[in-house]
Amino acid sequence: MALGYEFIALGMLAGAADIVTGHWKRKNVTTFSSRYARMVSGVSPNMVTALLIVAAGACLTSGAIGGIYLVVPVVFLAIIGGVTNAWIFLMSNLE
């Protein structure tokens, strides 16, 4: 149960940091030549990761056994999110 509260606090802290720094909303709108770069730049992988961590914590605090199993996809999504953020950064510097 304590692990669930830690996950909720961690997810809320990560989501708040994402909102404060503005990564969830790009203020300087750039046009990307790639269709995939435009699609990925609209969705923040960091915010999705934070929300899934909160969901895993909520499942753990409610007593559901499957809450800990939500952490595995979150780790994979965090890795994919880091790669896509780096890709968007590289695509924006090409133009």
Gyration radius, rounded: 15 Å
The overall strand count is 0
Described by the principal axes of the CA atoms, the overall outline is elongated
The main β sheet shows up as: none
Helices and strands, in order, run as HHHH
Treating each run of at least 4 consecutive H or I residues as one helix, how many helices? 4
C-alpha end-to-end distance? 49 Å
Number of domains: 1
Structural class: mainly alpha
| Fraction of residues in H or I helices | over 70%
Low-confidence runs: none
Task: Show the helix and strand layout.
Blueprint: H1 2-21, H2 35-42, H3 45-62, H4 71-94
Helix pairs in contact: 1-3, 3-4
Descriptive terms for the model:
mainly alpha; 4 helices; 0% strand; elongated
Question: Your description of this structure?
Answer:
With 95 residues, the protein is mainly alpha-helical. It has one domain (2-94). It has four helices and no strands. It has helices at residues 2-21, 35-42, 45-62, 71-94. Helix 1 runs antiparallel to helix 3 and helix 3 (45-62) runs antiparallel to helix 4. It is elongated.
A few lines on this structure:
The chain has 95 residues and is mostly helical. It has helices at residues 2-21, 35-42, 45-62, 71-94. The chain contains four helices and no strands.
